[in-house]
Amino acid sequence: MPIRVQPIYPDFAAEIGDIDLAQPLGDQDWAAIDEAFHRYGVLVFPDQSLDGDQHLAFARRFGPIEDSAKGFAPDNARLRLARGIADVSNLDLEGKVWSPDSKARGFQLGNQLWHTDSTFRVVPARVSLLYGCAIAPVGGQTEFADMRAAYDALPDGMKAKLEDLVVEHSITYSRARMGYVDFGPLDQGGLGKVPQVMIRRSERTGRAALYLAAHAGRIYGMPDVEAKALIDELLAHATQRRFLYLHRWRQNDLVMWDNRCTMHRGRPFEDLRWRRDFRRATVSDEIPSCERRGLAVAAA
Ligand SMILES: [Fe+2]
Q1: Is residue 298 part of a domain?
Q2: Would residue 56 count as lying in a domain?
Q3: What contacts 292, CB < 8 A, 6 or more positions away?
Q4: How far is the CA of 261 from the centre of ligand 1 (A)?
Q5: Structural domain of 92
Q6: Which residues, chain by chain, have CB under 5 Å from ion ligand 1?
Q7: Measured in angstroms, how far is the CA atom of residue 157 from the centroid of ligand 1?
């Protein structure tokens, strides 16, 4: 039986049925998923049963796996999940709900800000695949913004102004917004301040998208006061209700998104009460976004 693609909005987010991602994909199913992914930006696969290897095997169809622990945990650190799978749960190493003073808790609160994954890395994330093994009964949704539709809705003059801008991203910018300052030696892991293009264009569809996140802090060649105002204005524009999809998780949903043309944020839940076990495989975009666009980076 061919897979079923059920759009949630005409050009944004779709559910995919009649597919078992634990099994190797046939060419026809793969082509249909790949096509849907580039059209809708966010895909929801309900009722999956995946171990870490199967999760990673599906992710690898989209490109090389990013080591999400790099820069945050030493190479020999004890982790709850296999290396290559990011732990976005509220659990400690023993699988128990974290304590109020957990360092990971403070850090993950940053995921409640609008962002796209790993723009604080020189090579950002292309695709994220998040698997909800245990969900909170109330809250904890993930909200997505369609950055292609947000771009399309901008006035032509603004599009022209943004076209060749380069933005400085750093996890320190987003975490500082949360009042979190204890980073440790982040620069050793390649998590300093990095340049990213403001506008990305899909090599597949040709559609342009705003490329922004709470990690964005400065714009190259622009006074900081002006840059901050512009970033805040664009974030507010892109997160208007008309560009959003709110995903209410069911246990065993796998949700994947294109980080090049969407933003997302986690919604709050009672994290000291409910067990939430979420696991993310992340596909790297392979080369820096400025290099992909052929943009030279001037000093900030
Ligand atoms: Fe994220």
Answers
A1: no
A2: yes
A3: 197, 285
A4: 13
A5: 4-293
A6: 117
A7: 31
Place of tokens 């507010």: 236
What distance in angstroms lies between residue 115's CA and the mean position of ligand 1's atoms?
6
Integer angstrom CA distances of residue 63 from 40, 56, 125: 18, 11, 10
Distance 112 CA to ligand 1 centre (A): 8
Q: What is the pLDDT of residues 251-285, one digit of tens each?
A: 999 999 999 999 999 999 999 999 999 999 999 99
The pTM is what? 0.93
CA of 2 to the centre of ligand 1 (A): 31
Whole-angstrom distance, CA of residue 67 vs CA of residue 172: 19
Residue 300 inside a domain? The answer is no
Tally of domains in the chain = 1
Q: Phi and psi of 211, rounded to 5°?
A: -120, 95
49-63, 82-96, 132-146, 175-189: which has the minimum mean pLDDT? Answer: 175-189
- The enclosing domain of 76 has a CATH number of 3.60.130.10
Among 97-106, 124-133, 187-196, 216-225, the range scoring the smallest mean pLDDT is 187-196
**Ligand 1 centre distance from Cα of residue 116 (Å):** 6
Q: What is the 3-state secondary structure (H, E, C) of 88-104?
A: CCCECCCCCECCCCCHH
Q: Is pLDDT at 129 greater than 70 in this prediction?
A: yes
pLDDT digits (tens, 9 = 90+) for 223-242: 999 999 999 999 999 999 99
> Which pLDDT score, from 0 to 100, does residue 67 have?
82
> How many angstroms does the Cα of residue 225 sit away from the middle of ligand 1?
27
